[in-house]
Amino acid sequence: MIKCYSRFGLGLFNTRNKIIFKTPFTKTKSILFPTIINNIKREYSIINNNKMSESGAKAGATEENFRVDPKDTLFAKFISGQIPVQKIYEDEYCIAINDVNPQAPVHILVIPKLAVGGLSDVANVDAEKFKEAMGHIMSKIHHIASLKGADSYRLVINDGVFGQQSVRWLHVHILGGRQMNWPPG
Question: pTM for this one?
C-alpha cells in the first residue's frame, strides 16, 4: 500500500490499482475504480505528509495539475455529487466545505458551481455568468463565515502554480478564527 495525502483526505493505493479513499467529508470509505484512478492520482501528491515541501510549494500545486481540465477535478465531482461531501452551505451558485488541511481555526472553501479553472481562465467562460456567480458568492461570504463563528476573516484566491493553486477549479478560501499575519506568504 502507498499512502497518499491530498487536501481531500487520505488515499491508500493497493497493488490492484484501486484507491481506498477516506475523506473527512464522508463517514464511510469509498472505493474508486481504475476508470477514474488517473484523475485522482493527478490530484494527489505522493509524499510523507500534506505540508509544504522544502521549496515552499504546496502539495498538489504542480504544472501537471494546472493542465487538468477543471471538469476532471475532484471539485467537479463534489459539485456533481459523484463524491459526497459534508457541505457547510449550498445554493444555486456554490457549495462551501471545510478545508481538510486547515491553515486557521476556520478554513472554508467556497467552490463556485460554474466550471472555471482559475482567475486566469475567466476569459474562457461566459463573462455575464461569471459576474453573476462571483457577485453572488461574494455577497454570501460573510454569511458562510458566520456559520462557522468567524466574524472577521481573510479571503484568498490562489491562481496558477506559483500562486499555489492545487486544484484547477476557481475557489475562495475563507480563513478566520485567529489573528492573521501581514504580509501574507
Answer: 0.71
